[in-house]
């Protein structure tokens, strides 16, 4: 049995109108990530941090999946149980296209209580303070993995990488670990590895194959080669 693991990053959602982080005009050009994407930042200035994610949630709510998301969902439907999609993205565009995905950096759609770990559907605009509906603590935060925190689903993802036959990374700059190291784990497992990105990522030389271009064009073309 084949097992295909696909890692996606901000680049796959760029053509749906969602800003990437590190490209010119990207989110980290206007915000220092230490100011908005760490637990320390949230403790220091929760209004700024909630405002940053409220703006991103509003943008994500307007966005629609593009042909790259749709092609991956089709691939997953064609090979039930054989296509694992892992995303660093916090938007819900893979789901909107009909795919099932592991969100290793969390989701804008969810709120998390920093006191009791309860999760609930995030309102479009989270407040400060945002009370937890389960325990009442004024500790509601976006359910986003911030710098210095441990990404979600790591054991499950590592298990899939160790048994995969094909690994693809789509629209990710290869600058943030542990995701940037997944190619090496897949390669060690004997998988064929392919990068699909607008330009060479920081880890492009770890891949057996590199394809460059906009995701909405190169992902459907790659998927078409895999379908019977
Ligand atoms: P880091 O490498 O500095 O720290 C990650 C920590 O997690 C390290 O201490 C590492 O040892 C540990 N770790 C990694 N995998 C683990 C595993 N399987 N089991 C136990 N521990 C594990 O990374 P960072 O720069 O602090 O970033 C952490 C994460 O937060 C990254 O995945 C990053 O992309 C994410 N992040 C998300 C946003 C966002 O806005 N969505 C912003 C910033 C960072
Ligand atoms: N098609 C394909 N690739 C694209 C497109 C496109 N239309 N537009 C941009 N790209 C590529 C860029 O060339 C870049 O290499 O997507 C990549 C986006 O990289 P980043 O902005 O660094 O996003 P990502 O790799 O997902 O960031 C990882 O960093 O800050 C954290 O938690 C955040 O999940 C995020 C993580």
TrEMBL record:
Needed cofactors: Zn(2+)
Deacetylase sirtuin-type domain: residues covered: 1-228
GO cellular component entries: cytoplasm
Highest taxon of the lineage: Bacteria
Cofactor note: Binds 1 zinc ion per subunit.
Catalytic activity: N(6)-acetyl-L-lysyl-[protein] + NAD(+) + H2O = 2''-O-acetyl-ADP-D-ribose + nicotinamide + L-lysyl-[protein]; N(6)-succinyl-L-lysyl-[protein] + NAD(+) + H2O = 2''-O-succinyl-ADP-D-ribose + nicotinamide + L-lysyl-[protein]
Binding annotation for substrate: 53, 56
Sorted UniProt keywords: Cytoplasm, Metal-binding, NAD, Transferase, Zinc
Major localisation: cytoplasm
UniProt cross-references to Pfam families, sorted A to Z: SIR2
Active site per UniProt: 105
Residues holding Zn(2+): 113, 116, 132, 135
GO molecular function list: histone deacetylase activity, NAD-dependent; NAD+ binding; protein-malonyllysine demalonylase activity; protein-succinyllysine desuccinylase activity; zinc ion binding
Annotated residues for binding of NAD(+): 9-28, 88-91, 171-173, 197-199, 215
Location(s) in or outside the cell: Cytoplasm
EC annotation from Swiss-Prot or TrEMBL: 2.3.1.286
Keyword flag Aminoacyl-tRNA synthetase: no
Domain remarks in the Swiss-Prot or TrEMBL record: 2 residues (Tyr-53 and Arg-56) present in a large hydrophobic pocket are probably involved in substrate specificity. They are important for desuccinylation activity, but dispensable for deacetylation activity.
Role description: NAD-dependent lysine deacetylase and desuccinylase that specifically removes acetyl and succinyl groups on target proteins. Modulates the activities of several proteins which are inactive in their acylated form.
Family: Belongs to the sirtuin family. Class III subfamily.
Protein's recorded name: NAD-dependent protein deacylase
